[in-house]
Amino acid sequence: MMRGLFTAATGMRGQQLNVDTIANNLANVNTTGYKKNRVNFQDLLYETIRAPGAPTTGGIEMPVGIQVGHGVRPASISRDFAQGNFIQTNNPLDMVIQGRGFFQITLPDGTTAYSRDGSFKRDSTGQVVTADGFLLEPAITIPDEALQITISSDGTVSSVIPGQPDPQNLGTIELALFPNPVGLDARLGRNLFLETTASGTPITGEPGGAEGGGTIEQSFLENSNVQVVEEIIHLIIAQRAYQANSNVIQTADEMLGLANSVKR
Question: Whole-angstrom Cα distance, residue 102 to residue 222?
Fold first, then answer.
């Protein structure tokens, strides 16, 4: 009976983490560039009462054994980097990546972070920054007198300057591509990721290049790839699994009570 209690408890703990993850996905359904998470589970060690293939007293080999599991544990929370839907905006500094690349962002301490959020702004000095004021890398400065900003699919940023017949080239946006993007560290929040040994070293290059990071589209943003109906279904399944495990604990407790009440 005690094994059943602890086994069901691991199931309840696992489903609680599952519900927490689903709740975070639903909370970020409107977060630009957000990528949904999924909990992956593994079964725990098994107690081998009789090993498969063990011989009996008569020398006969048993085709199956007796192995009792001890429950479940969360193995990982993986992020789904599937492309989200695009939404058109009127902001010339809004950008979307059609592909697997990431924008490079310089943090105040000089560290480079990576993001799928292309909702950029212009600060008081004309530099292109995120909503938190972090610089886009490579840095691009837009003159105050610029009348029109154009961002081509290959990342070239140009603007029309009064008195100049041709648009002025302001710089080129570079994208970063990771061998294993699910290994990126998301602890900073703010739509930012950090490089880790699991993600691998980023490969940088211009949009549309041979690196395969993708191309850029101006005045578009990438929505979250969370599907509300799908998350609600997963939530119902997690809730029922949690309830089933709680019923196991209740049943095991009743059986223990019956065993304790047996008299000679």
Answer: 12
